[in-house]
Amino acid sequence: MKHTSQVEIERKYDVDENALVPTFTSVEGIESVSVDDAVQLEAVYYDTEGLDLLRKRHIVRRREGGGDEGWHIKRPAGEGRTELHWPLDVDGAADSSSDAVPESVLEPVRAIVRDRILTPLARISTRRTATHLVGAGGEAVAEFADDQVTASDVRGGAVRAWREWEVELLPGAPDSEEGRTALLDAIEVAVLAEAATVSSSPAKIARALGHDSLSDALDDAGEQDAVEVQRAVPSARPAPASELTSKSPAADVIVEALRQLVEQLEQLDPQARADQPDSVHQMRSAVRRLRSVLAAYRRLFDDERVSSLRDQLRTLGGVLGTARDAEVRAQLAGDELSELGHRTSDASHRRLVEGSLEEYRQAHAAALRMLSSASYYRLFDELDDFVANPPLSALGEKRTPIKVVAAKVIASELARLRKRAGAAAFAGASGPGGDIDARGDRALHSARKAARRLRFAADAVSKGGTAVLGKRYRHISREAERVQDALGDHRDNALFVEHLLLNSNRAHAAGENTFVYGAMSVRAQNRGSAALNESPKALKRLDRRAESL
């Protein structure tokens, strides 16, 4: 079942039982207030035995009472938190006596919880009195909640009670981050004037577990044990990304790059499950990037572990690739038919566009089965373990600076690309009409993959949170991408020509006009030849950039 989504921007405050609620009359921009009748909120918070959700700063809860009762997921966002909401009866789960979390609610957090069971973590009862703060335009800009809270730690057995205040922005709040921050700051002045203090935790669940913050709760649940293990093995503990430099040990930099890629894959999982636009493509790209970085820097790690992960990632990428290829065929056919003036009612449109979209739907369903399989969840477990406890090789243990290791890796990857490309593949493989034999096609595809691996190896040390080696590596990445794109465009058009030929034969057998298939085929061949002819120039530019290393 579809969920609704909103960004939650709020601040919380600890307050004494006898504190008086602020009047807010002195807050600039607040013209009036309205106080609602008190409501009773009953919530159950869920997590795995190992608190996987809390470790990722995610919350899953079922709440009764109030205007937004239902199932909620709260997760980090650039500003505030994103809250997903389902009704109480989602998937027929209206029975409050059941502790089972509905499948629809689980889907967005599957990459975090995997096939582990969610059970109640805490039960929180809140008596809430809400005050709406109304701006000059007559629209409420914020809600001030005075909460009397009683919480039961289900697993620990303790019951705790406290009072807290919460200020949450409403749709009438300023539309800029600067304006929203200014409004919250102004409200905070009035709140702190009543002897309140800023809360150390943005969520009630931490206090329900007997701690001042989520970090403290996680430490108490065993996080400290993991830290002690890492302290005992210094080589397996990479430095924080903010501390990495060109002189940092190569293993530290690459492990951090891998950690960020695993995190990206985890974030893309719910988008691909929900079939959001371009999500399958983005997830497939993240898988390829992970495989490439593991391969390029494999000498830093245990070879068997790297090979195992790359094999599993290849399988995942293949399933995602089947869906992505069908999606590309549909997009390309739609654009071509539109440019040639064919209507959506034409048989060619039904065969090429609607047929490819149906193939995509079937392939996406197969991808969903993969994303819900035990093998997929164990892959994530292995990736998590790899970055948390890196299996370093002798080279990785030497802690050689990344600037030394990366230079050798890039040189090796460039030599690999030159070998796979070959002068004939770049300069003479394309004959009249762009025809290439099967051997040449395999060589070009192999060269494309080599260019991609070179690009991602350079990116790992020059972009994002591990950008420690600067513009020379970014230049190499850019030129490698041009080689990759040229060969990729050629391959995409070659595959499209094969697709057109297959469907043209089917259309002919069905008595349909096949002229448009021939016209599209010629256009695709010309595009492919032009792309292939661009690749030698791209490789030469790459060679010139590599000389700077």
From TrEMBL:
Protein name (record): CHAD domain-containing protein
Q: Which organism is it from?
A: Agreia pratensis
Q: Where would I find the CYTH domain in this sequence?
A: 6-208
Question: Do you know which InterPro entries this protein is assigned to?
Answer: CHAD_dom, CHAD_dom_sf, CYTH-like_dom_sf, CYTH_domain
Q: Which domain of life is it from?
A: Bacteria
Extract the CDD domains matched here: CYTH-like_Pase
**Gene3D superfamilies membership:** CHAD domain, Hypothetical Protein Pfu-838710-001
Residue ranges constituting the CHAD domain according to the UniProt record: 247-544
